[in-house]
Amino acid sequence: MKNQAGSQTVSRAIELLRLVSSGGRAGMRLSAVVDASELSRPTAHRLLKELIDGGLLMRSADKRYFLGQFAYELGLSAAAHFHLRDLCAPFVERIANETGDTVFLVVRSGADSFCLDRQTGAYPVKVFSVEVGNRQPLGVGAGGLALLSWLPEKERQAMIERNSARLPQHGGLTAPHLAKLVEEARQQGHSRIVDFAIAGVTGVGMPVLDTAGQPTAALSVTSISMRMTPQHQAEVLGVLGREVARLKTALMRPAPAVH
To answer: For residue 71, what are the domain limits?
Structure first.
């Protein structure tokens, strides 16, 4: 029983780290952490304090929680071992140059999507809906929707249920609506999301699947809705589909041997 309780504490602490990091530069207040985590206030406060003591979180003078110095150091250390962003960079840049729009590379992080890279095209009206390093509930945004849509059915349903309380913060998105968007994405072969997170913005995305058919990452293209006409969307999807196929092939190649 003791080991089980310890494992549960670690799991909760990890989820709190993910949750606080989703607050980005604005941070999160204790009340928001309690509401989103569904932990009791004393439990959340105790875990947050332990994370602060360990340097993984910090608390500002106005009682907002942010990632701490040690979390930053861990990120720098881990970055040396993960080259996905570097490998994907030419593909992301090519899509941005050809479409003229903003392109996002996102990966899954627990119940969230995490923005790994962002490149902008030449179109003068830029869409900066998500910054590199930001996270949001899986299914919010075209890239996150693509990741969610190609998960196994039981896992998809579990993620939607788990994030249901957080979804309305993103343009009034609800669990039933998200489930409908997932169904549409699987039928169309790509995700499409309009007005959620930012009004007047449309995004389309595609997952990059591994050999087992699981999403490794997702690429999405976002622009203002008046630009994303059916013709432009078709052009974007053509470029996106081509680059996703090329990226999938690149990711399947064995890593070069280190001597």
So the answer is: 2-76
